Amino acid sequence: MVEIPATIKDIAKYTGLSIATISKYLNGGNVLEKNRILIEEAIKALDFEVNEIARGLRTNKTMTIGVLIPVFEVFFNTIVSSLENVLLETGYSVIVCDYRDNEKLEKERLDFLYKKRVDALVIVPTYLKGNDIRKIIKRDIPIVAVDRPIEDFECDTILVNNFEVSYKAVERLIILGHRKIGIICGPQNIYTAQERLNGYLKAHNDYGITVYKDYIKFGEYHNMESGYKSMIELLNNPEPPSAVFVTNYEMTLGAIIAINEKDIKVPDELSIIGFDNLEMAKIVKPSLSLVVQPMEEIGETVANLLLRRLKGEKNDFPLRKKLDAQVLIRSSIKNIG
């Protein structure tokens, strides 16, 4: 015997409330707290299932948020998880797409998410520009750029203080007497890589220290091998640096492999500051000094901002907010002054 699914009328009968009140609640409207409790109790007791497709057609809402990231890796995964934790409490679900650092795929994935009629978009852009987004996005939906701004496009943007924290990391090495400081940067076309390099350069300039071009290497953010190759090049320099700042997690892993392969003793022969992942810092011996980004805070900030925008709150639009990363000093750097 086929069981007949519960309907709104069944909930009305169970609770004694009007169909209008129940419909208002199911469509995301505000109802009295005592009525909300009654309705949720009835939904559970009657095993009522909301038809999300039908509700989406009525309300023009799908209760989904689209998230577009370059790759699935620790930094972005943690942000998405934190974002999802906040949104789930309000009934929203998340559709996540990665575009594998591919320009064509980035636009295709954005188009895919938009055609899923998501209520809002979270974008970590690499190649996307304002014109690309305007060609695809025809509805007025909230868009939040994360980690990097979108060129020529006005939207909310949540960033990290990349310039300032890079400056602080390099300044700490300078204070400890280091004058030959290498840096392994990300791709030159990416905003975060530019900011981290600029912080490195500004610290040198402020302290009157010569910048050696041979000590500046450019790798790929999501490629451990590029960190390895860059570190090998630095170590093979006729006058190798006494300290190296690696500006991304995957490149940090590659750099550590190169140091171990070369049998370089840290910090006696080389001081190093890496990027992200506290668990890695505990495993590596001696314990690794790190720049740590507020990944969970980024996700929570984006989620709460989206919820405000979805309610129509635009008094502070477009919001551009920088969150603070921290320099955690461990045993991997040495005073040589």
UniProtKB/TrEMBL annotation:
Residues 6-59 form the HTH lacI-type domain. Keywords: DNA-binding, Repressor, Transcription, Transcription regulation. The keyword DNA-binding applies. It comes from the Bacteria. The keyword Transcription applies. PROSITE patterns: HTH_LACI_2 (PS50932). Pfam families: LacI, Peripla_BP_3. One of its GO terms (molecular function) is DNA binding. This is LacI family DNA-binding transcriptional regulator.
